[in-house]
Structure formats: structure tokens, C-alpha cells
């Protein structure tokens, strides 16, 4: 069986940025045999949240490569130039492209690496491959749409699978009900509904705000926006606060004791969680203000409320909603419920369960590499799962370029471990 230098699980922005950095190494004469495995049939970046008029919350300069290599042909500016839109974009006088356009940029970049990516395969397991009492390689097992299993060996692994939908416990019993769905599946699942008239949106972040406004623009739809918070709080994108997304701040967070890291995450949580853009908040406020002007209460903002239970019935989904101020609970029926409740980022633990005994507490070093026992030779890196140790930027685009540079440097060290010596030749495992 062929042995890869590197296998990347997932081919979203993080691993595309890594593919760019590896391509630069190849051009410099340091080629690595890298393969990426993506479960989607083709490249797609949050395809079911590509809403009309939705824009990026991050500057286009923090693309896949510019902070690391401004001269790269894979920069957002070169993408615009290749598409013949650079002058027009300049005339927009904005740092924030539409989400549709940034998705097209990512797709354009991914298309340059199709020869290195296998689409339509879902990695479900990573096994240890032993040789003389040490784990020499990793066996990556994936399954395609027809159910056929593919196995590949690798010296290094980079897991970049993004977050899995966070479903609150009160909705756990409705996970198979098509009328209850996570915001990450919004457009797809909404299209399956039979003309829903009353919809609940759970959450108070960017996704909840965007979905509320999208539903507001659909004729005949009534929306209850349910949030434990009293008010929407805008994301803090002021210059000094934005410095927490600089690479050097990652050093600062990582080098702090665990308790202080947690305090730093809480202090700046408003930059990323439950923090929509101010412009969106103003639009939502105007919607509710105009309702007061006209006297037509189409939507409700159920602030300081939480869902304590849910039940599916033939006429709709019934939610037990408690007023956090009074303690009063009422039952309201909805045609559909959208969970804009964020993500959990522990999928890597499921994939790596067969090798967990070699990975002390799944702890990572500064370069995003999992600590391993001495008898474990392969290197495993995590992208997007290290927020507790590396800070709020870990799940965002801001740090991609710098992070891939660090991972490439660490990969060079791993590759050197496998270099054949005059007295020992590499053995191919079949």
C-alpha cells in the first residue's frame, strides 16, 4: 500500500490554506505527498447559509494566504484580477465582500488542487499501523457514497473537519424530525418544508440574525426569535480588540496558565459568539419598530426566554418556553424550528478513538500538534479544534495563513524522522 507523507481530513478553508503552503514548498524543491479527503461531493463552504445580502465579518485581506505571503497567486486580490473584477471591487470601497463572492474565491482556489483531493468520501476511523512495537503509520479508513471502504496509510494527519451542529438537550428527542433543523442546514431544510407559516429561531448570534431577516423577507411567514439574552450585542471589531486575532496573540494565550486562558476567552467572547454585526441588529430593530408603527405584530422577539422542552405532533412542533424573569412557562406550536445554537468541535476525538491511548488527553502543543507517547511516530495536527489553548481565532479565518506555516514547519520535522538511513530501509505495508 502506498504511504502518503500527509493525509488531510476535510477540504475546507483550513486545509486549502495548507495545500497552498505545501504547493509553495513543492515549487521550492521540498515536495510532500499530500492527499485530502472531503466528504462532500464537491467543494462547498456553508452552502446552506449563503443568504442574499450576507457579507463577511472579516477583511478580505485575511484570506487563505495574504498575511503569510502577500505575493501569492492564491490571494483574494489575484482571484478578483483573474475574474476581471478587481477595479469594480475597488470601487465598492469595502473590506467585506459578500459571502457568495468569498465562497466563489474559496471554490476557485480549491479547483487548483482537485488532483490532490478525493471528494465524496467520509473518513470514519483512523487506526494505528504498528511495526516492531511502535506505531509507524496511520491507516485512514473512509467510505464513499456507495458504501465501499477505502484504506490509506500516512505518516502525518491533519484533521480540519469544522464544527458539528450543537443541538441543545431539550431538542435531542427531535433529532430525526425534519421540522427541527440546525442553522447550518437552513436553506436546504427550509426548502423541504410545506409552506411553513410559523417558525421559531433559537439563538442570538450572527446566524440567528441573518435567518430572522431572511424569513422576514418571505411572504406570510411569522417568526418568534427566542433568546435567553435581553438584547442583541454587536460584535466588537474595534482595532485594539481585533489584535486578539493576530498571530502573536496566539502565543500570548498559549503561554498563559489554563485558568488565565479561560478568563481571556470569556473576556473577548463578544468578538465571536452571540455577537451579530451592528448593521444587522439595526435592521432587526427597525423591523420590530415598524410593527409598532403599523400595529401589525407579525414577529415576536421573545427575549429572556428559553426552551425547556419540545414535543413533535401531527400539527407541528410544540415548545415549552419559559420566561426567565417570571418563571412562567407556555406551550407554543410551530411549523418549523431553526436551531442557531452554534457548534461543538470534538469530531476529532471520535475519529481518533482507536489511537486515543497514544494521545495523552488529546492535548496539543503550540504548533497544533497532538502530544503522543514515545512509541507513536506519526504526527497528528488539529485545525479548528484548539480554541481552549490557542484562543478565539482558532475557529476563524483570521489565523489560517499563519497556522499553516507553523504546521508546515512541524511537518518538515516529521518527514525527517521517516528519512531512510543507510542501515534501515523503509518497509511498505500491504
TrEMBL record:
Keywords: FAD, Flavoprotein, NADP, Oxidoreductase. Its EC number is 1.14.13.195. Its cofactor is FAD. It comes from the Bacteria. SUPFAM superfamilies: FAD/NAD(P)-binding domain. Pfam families: Lys_Orn_oxgnase. GO terms for molecular function: oxidoreductase activity. Pathway: Siderophore biosynthesis. GO terms for biological process: intracellular iron ion homeostasis. The keyword Membrane does not apply. Belongs to the lysine N(6)-hydroxylase/L-ornithine N(5)-oxygenase family. This is L-ornithine N(5)-monooxygenase. It comes from Vreelandella titanicae. The lineage of its organism: Bacteria, Pseudomonadati, Pseudomonadota, Gammaproteobacteria, Oceanospirillales.
